[in-house]
Amino acid sequence: MAKRVAVVVSQGQSHHPAKRQLEEEIVASLLGESSVDVTVIPHLYDLKPDGSAILCLQGIAQELIVLSWMFPRATRWILGRYGVLGQEGASLLDQPSDDAEDEEAEIPEPSAELQDALPRVIESIEIPKRKIYCLNLANAKEPSVFVDEIRRIVTEAQVQPLQPIDWLQGKPKPEQVKRMLDPAPGNVEHQGSGNGSVTDPQHDPANVIEETTERRWYPVIDMSRCTNCMECIDFCLFGVYGIDQADTILVEQPDNCRKGCPACSRVCPENAILFPQHKTPAIAGSGDATEAIKIDLSKLFGSPDVDAVEMAVRERDEQLLIAGRETVGDAVGIASRSASHAAGDADDLDRLIDQLDALDL
Amino acid sequence: MNLVFKMGEYEANFPADRKYAPNHMWALGTEGSWRFGFSAYAVRLLQDVYFLDWEVAPGMQVEQGKHIGDIESSKAESTLHAPLAGTITSINAQLLQDPSAINVDKYGEGWLFEMDASGDALLEPTAYLEHLEDVWEVTQKTIKGQFNQ
Ligand code: SF4
Ligand code: SF4
């Protein structure tokens, strides 16, 4: 009955020694665990669509934990792009740290009703039951933080079918946990799930997938937010976006995207477009819905009146110039924005009010 | 001596030993060379800053109002703009590792950058407080206006 959990470590882009060390220590600590299969891949965002690492990920059908140097939302939807889907597993590492300094009340989740004002693309995607947990390696410096969290998730995955609710909330007894983490040898079920290409983990060290990667730069769409409004396809003049057979927005030619350009993320009315390597956390996929929409103080701090769309138009013009093309200003691809933006604002309202209250003005 | 401005319940303190820029930065220095940091007004609006990044480097000349960096806290985000026209001479590298000094010691260790510039446009503390009286209304409206647009 013991389920095996796949753990995938996506290596940092930069080969930074401190990052490598953290990755290696986590992998080393996990090799002793009998119920996890560890796979090491190059930086997830940079992988070739038809490379062996993606094939391997697509072959994993069981519970999956992915550790990467990106925000969980970015990791989740890069995987999603390749059809590696699953229910969103909740990690304790995502919980806002309870800093003693922050006496403010926590911002409540917007109610489901407000959040679902517009249908999201995710509702039309079939998502398998297994869970995918995305952990951000930048969240902690000690390998033990991640190893402990992985153990917790493994336990969660094991106990679910037996005692759905009590166990999750309460603490399983130590001997129960031990039994789950360390099943007797005869108890282990493992036939390498179907088309799974993960090597047999019997006495296997980590499965390290070597693939030469180059740094890539392309938008990643968070389908739990995207409403398929097509603003992005109208806005981008580099042919990055397209639509699939079901008329759903698609990042069709990712490598046409202009390195460093985040313009379309600013015109998306739902903040659904991420650039995982962008330096601004909100664009790189920081946090959840409540975090991404923040009070913008720029005007108070001396910004000439430039809103996100103007900035996007300027960035796009810059890229057009670099590519040796004519600039277009705001003449192309932003006409329909105001209408749909108003609709999108309805569900932001509550969050902003909550945030204002929290500001205690 | 500190001057005090009340932001709702909150009392923002402003040391009188320095000048202020209308975009809520303090300026400490001698004519021609200034160190800048966030005033208590700015820090109160931002609250706990966890991200700071600069678009400029020492030696660069900037126009007044030029976009020089970005800041983000758990509740707000903002672009940062040059308070004066001049030349950036130094950036507080400590803050790039850990921006928490902005909250802990805004008038000291939490300084942001230094510039060679004419300080003619800077305000005396009392003038800055009058400026706050003027903008406090607008500040509240600007924030609240973000969901009425
Ligand atoms: S603009 Fe945003 S919401 Fe609209 S289709 Fe593109 S990603 Fe989806
Ligand atoms: S970032 Fe620029 S080039 Fe890339 S998809 Fe968006 S608009 Fe197109």
What does this structure look like?
- The complex is a heterodimer of chains A (361) and B (149).
- Chain A has two domains: 5-96 and 127-209; 220-339, no CATH class.
- Mean pLDDT of chain A is 78; it is low at 97-113, 162-169, 182-203, 288-292 and 336-354.
- Helix content of chain A is 33%, strand content 11%.
- In chain A, the strands form three sheets. A six-stranded parallel beta sheet of chain A has the order 4-5-3-1-2-6.
- Chain A is of the alpha/beta class and 361 residues long.
- Chain B is of the alpha+beta class.
- At the A-B interface, strand 11 and helix 13 of A face helix 1, strand 8, strand 9 and helix 4 of B.
- Strand 11 of chain A pairs parallel with strand 9 of chain B.
- Bound molecules: iron/sulfur cluster (2 copies).
- The site of one iron/sulfur cluster has 13 residues of chain A, from helix 9 and helix 12.
Topology summary:
The complex is a heterodimer of chains A (361) and B (149).
Chain A: E1 5-10, H1 17-30, E2 36-41, H2 52-58, E3 64-68, H3 72-81, E4 87-88, H4 112-115, E5 131-136, H5 143-159, H6 166-169, H7 174-181, E6 207-208, E7 220-221, H8 231-235, E8 241-243, E9 249-251, H9 263-267, E10 273-274, H10 281-284, H11 289-292, E11 295-296, H12 308-322, H13 337-359
Helix pairs in contact in A: 1-5
Chain B: E1 2-7, E2 10-15, E3 19-21, E4 25-30, E5 32-38, H1 40-46, E6 49-54, E7 61-62, E8 67-73, E9 76-81, E10 86-91, H2 93-97, H3 101-104, E11 113-117, H4 125-145
Bound molecules: iron/sulfur cluster (2 copies).
Uncertain regions spanning at least 5 consecutive residues of chain B: none
CATH class of chain B: Mainly Beta
Helical proportion of chain A, percent range: 25-40%
Question: Any idea of the CATH topology of chain B?
Answer: OB fold (Dihydrolipoamide Acetyltransferase, E2P)
Classify the oligomer.
heterodimer
- Let me know the average pLDDT of chain A: 78
Number of strands of chain B: 11
Residue fraction in strands of chain B: 35-45%
Tell me the radius of gyration of chain B.
15 Å
- SSE order of chain B, as H and E? EEEEEHEEEEEHHEH
Estimated radius of gyration of chain A: 22 Å
Q: Which structural class best describes the helix and strand composition of chain A?
A: alpha/beta
Domain count of chain B: the total is: 1
Roughly how much helix do the residues of chain B carry, as a percent range? 10-25%
